[in-house]
Each structure stands twice: as structure tokens, then as C-alpha cells.
């Protein structure tokens, strides 16, 4: 398959899956495996995530501007900013320490990714049913200890196939967030987390970057941006009404198909 077309498909897949709890990285790595696509240092898969980051920034730009503008004189705005930074901190520490192992071992193990999709799907279905009665309806008012706990739970997503959004949403639900607030806090936390991962990965792989791949990255970036905008606009209302069961079943189906394909030698 033409590499530009593959880049477009992977970019579309990234944008569609980044903010729903199905593991965009897992989908990208499995799709790349079965399509025979692999970028130097897995840089393509990380860089195109910036398209999804810019999508969420564009949709929340007015709200974020209001928060940062109010921060000098509004304790609630400062507390919200601090809660996101506190939740981001564990990923910084663990991500830097474990970066090489994650990229050279975990990212190169398709069977692990497929199994984690299934396991995560089962957990998501279970938590969607048994989550406690919501005590926190506003993602901008999560207590700092709760935000820190969500940040540690997010680190589980360093195992590809787990899902960053899935881990943060499950953690928030178990800690008493409503389904909508859990998804929205995951959006906010994705901004520093994904931007940080992009910057650090680009730095670590600066020696293996291939200028000839810039066209493919650009195509994937644009597709990720467009598809992520569409998903974010739809997601909050959907999970408020229907919960997360659809995504749990999707993970189980995709993971099971991938396991079967890998056993069959594909």
C-alpha cells in the first residue's frame, strides 16, 4: 500500500481513537504491524498525536483562555490549573525513567498490545457498571488528591494497548467522578501529557529523524486533527447518555481479532 495512504489511514485512526478509551497507540501499532508500516524510532506514531492535541486545544481555547485570565485573582481557576499539573507530574517522572524500555520493548510486542486491549475492555465494562454514585460533576473542581491519584493511574497507559484516556476515565469514575466529568478531565490532562510526550520523544529520536518522512507525518497530522475534532464534539454527550460499554466491547473485539491474526502468523 502507498505510504502516503497508510499515513492518512493511521492519522485518521489516531484522531478517532485518541480521546475515547480504546488506546490510540495500541490501534496505531497494531495497524502499522499488519500494514507493514514502521517509522524510525516510532516517531510518526508520537508526532501525529500533536494533531489531536491541537484539536482539543482549538475546541477548548476560549475556556482555557478564561481560566488562565482569571487565575491571578480567582482561587478556583488556580486550583484547576494546579490539579491538571499535579495529575501530569507522575507521567513526567515515570515516562522519563521508562522511556527507552517502553519504546524498544513494549511498543514492539503486538501480542501484549492485543491482550491489553481485551483486558482493558473487560475492566471498562466492569467499572462502567459498578462505578460509585458520582460526587464530582465538574472536571474543573476535582480535589488535588483525586487529581494526583488519576495521574498515577494514567501511568498504566505507558503499556501500549491500555489507553491513556481509558486509564484516566476508569480512575476518575472509581474516585467518584460523573461519566461526563471523567471524560472531560481526561481531555484536559491529555494536553500537557501528549505535548510532553511529543517533545521528549522528538528530542530522544532527533538522530534518527528522516526528512523524507515529513510528508507522511504531515498527512497523518492533518487527518488526526480533523478526526479528533469530530470525536471530541460527539463524545461528551454520548457518554453522558450511554456510558462506556460501547468502547469496552470495541476493545474486546479488536483485541480478540488481533490475537487470532497474530496466532495465524500475520
Automatic annotation (TrEMBL):
It catalyses: di-trans,octa-cis-undecaprenyl diphosphate + H2O = di-trans,octa-cis-undecaprenyl phosphate + phosphate + H(+). The lineage of its organism: Bacteria, Pseudomonadati, Pseudomonadota, Alphaproteobacteria, Rhodobacterales. Its EC number is 3.6.1.27. Belongs to the UppP family. The chain crosses the membrane at residues 47-68, 80-99, 111-131, 152-175, 181-202, 214-236, 248-265. The keyword Ribosomal protein does not apply. This is Undecaprenyl-diphosphatase. It is found in: Cell membrane. It comes from Sulfitobacter alexandrii.
Amino acid at each position: 500500500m502507498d505510504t502516503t495512504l497508510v499515513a492518512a489511514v493511521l492519522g485518521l485512526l489516531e484522531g478517532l481513537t485518541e480521546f475515547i478509551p480504546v488506546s490510540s497507540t495500541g490501534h496505531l501499532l497494531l495497524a502499522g504491524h499488519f500494514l507493514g508500516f514502521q517509522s524510525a524510532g516510532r516517531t510518526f506514531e508520537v508526532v501525529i498525536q500533536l494533531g489531536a492535541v491541537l484539536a482539543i486545544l482549538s475546541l477548548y481555547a476560549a475556556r482555557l483562555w478564561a481560566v488562565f485570565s482569571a487565575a491571578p485573582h480567582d482561587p478556583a481557576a488556580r486550583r484547576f490549573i494546579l490539579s491538571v499539573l499535579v495529575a501530569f507530574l507522575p507521567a513526567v517522572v515515570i515516562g522519563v525513567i521508562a522511556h527507552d524500555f517502553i519504546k524498544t520493548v513494549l511498543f514492539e510486542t503486538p501480542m501484549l498490545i492485543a491482550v491489553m486491549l481485551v483486558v482493558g475492555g473487560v475492566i471498562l465494562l466492569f467499572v462502567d457498571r459498578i462505578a460509585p454514585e458520582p460526587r464530582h460533576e465538574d472536571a474543573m473542581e476535582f480535589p488535588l488528591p483525586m487529581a494526583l491519584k488519576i495521574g498515577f493511574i494514567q501511568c498504566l497507559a505507558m503499556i501500549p494497548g491500555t489507553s491513556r484516556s481509558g486509564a484516566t476515565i476508569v480512575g476518575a469514575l472509581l474516585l467518584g467522578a460523573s461519566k461526563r466529568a471523567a471524560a472531560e478531565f481526561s481531555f484536559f490532562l491529555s494536553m500537557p501529557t501528549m505535548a510532553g510526550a511529543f517533545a521528549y520523544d522528538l528530542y530522544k529520536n532527533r538522530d534518527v529523524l528522516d526528512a523524507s518522512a515529513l510528508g507522511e507525518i504531515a498527512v497523518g497530522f492533518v487527518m488526526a486533527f480533523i478526526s479528533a475534532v469530530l470525536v471530541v464534539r460527539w463524545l461528551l454527550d454520548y457518554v453522558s447518555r450511554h456510558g462506556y460499554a460501547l468502547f469496552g466491547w470495541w476493545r474486546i473485539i479488536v483485541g480478540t481479532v488481533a490475537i487470532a491474526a497474530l496466532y495465524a502468523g500475520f
